[in-house]
Write a structure and sequence with these properties.
The chain has helices at residues 8-62, 70-74, 99-103; strands spanning 94-96, 115-120, 127-132, 137-141, 147-149. By secondary structure, the chain is an alpha+beta fold. It has one domain (34-152). A hairpin with a 6-residue loop joins β2 and β3.
Length: 153
């Protein structure tokens, strides 16, 4: 009676093939995670910016200041959902920044807030800028062969 089993060589061939497959698949999955972070950031930015635009339309019709204050933005007045944490940093919250910081899309105290907001209803025209408070690179193309930073989305 003869026992049937795999030889050591057959097992080594299978292990090498699995290693090759893993070496190919792992980088693809890591880039999928980066793509998901970029898409989630873009989605949050689009949702909040859309809510600000809707607020502005209603405010202008009613003769009020066109852009919401930070309290209105982070409350239930403007955005009808909790603003999620920043996908790149995992940090929650919105902080105010200066015009210079907002214009340059500066990252300010990255560990303290996930999003930056600048507002000036007294400017002509009034200005509001909402952006990601993260210095991490995204996977979104900048059109010149590079990628945009999360704060530039």
């Amino acid at each position: 009676m003869r026992n049937k089993a795999f030889t050591l060589v057959e097992l080594l061939v299978v292990i090498v093939m699995l290693g090759i497959l893993a070496a190919i698949a792992v980088p693809r999955f890591s880039s999928a995670t980066d793509d998901a972070r970029s898409a989630s950031t873009q989605s949050t930015l689009a949702g909040v910016r859309s809510a600000i635009a809707t607020f502005r339309m209603n405010a202008v019709i009613n003769g009020n200041d066109p852009f919401p204050t930070l309290a209105e933005l982070t409350g239930t007045t403007v955005v009808k959902f909790d603003i999620p944490s920043n996908p790149f940093t995992g940090v929650n919250g919105v902080q105010t920044v200066s015009l210079g910081q907002a214009t340059n899309r500066s990252v300010v105290s990255e560990a303290s807030a996930g999003w930056n907001y600048y507002i000036d209803n007294s400017a002509t025209p009034p200005v509001a800028i909402f952006y990601s408070n993260s210095s991490a690179p995204s996977t979104v193309s900048d059109g010149n062969g590079g990628v945009l930073g999360a704060n530039e989305l």
